[in-house]
Write a structure and sequence with these properties.
The protein is of the alpha+beta class. The chain has a single domain, classed as GMP Synthetase, Chain A, domain 3 (2-Layer Sandwich), CATH 3.30.300. Helix content is about 40%, strand content about 25%. It has a three-stranded mixed beta sheet.
């Protein structure tokens, strides 16, 4: 499964403002941005993003995933420093 397919899957399943997917089948890096993450712990945020990917991971299309999730405000502050 390619990065664009993963991106489209997550956009369709989650209410995200932006998403960045990089890497290859061995290791995918995901940065997810959206207000879906407001008032949610970092662990729960990762679980939210991970959930739509479970079948892809268990069928070994992806080996490892790194997820960073931001609210829109957090992303704006992170990128304006």
């Amino acid at each position: 499964m390619d990065n664009e397919s993963i991106k489209l899957l997550l956009i369709n399943k989650l209410n995200l403002t932006k998403i960045y997917v990089t890497g290859d089948n061995n290791h995918i890096n995901i940065i997810a941005i959206g207000d879906i993450f407001k008032n949610i712990s970092s662990v729960k945020r990762q679980q939210i993003v991970y959930e739509p990917l479970i079948n892809i991971i268990t069928e070994k299309y992806i080996h490892a995933v790194s997820i960073t999730a931001y609210t829109n405000d957090e992303w704006e502050k992170t990128n304006n420093q």
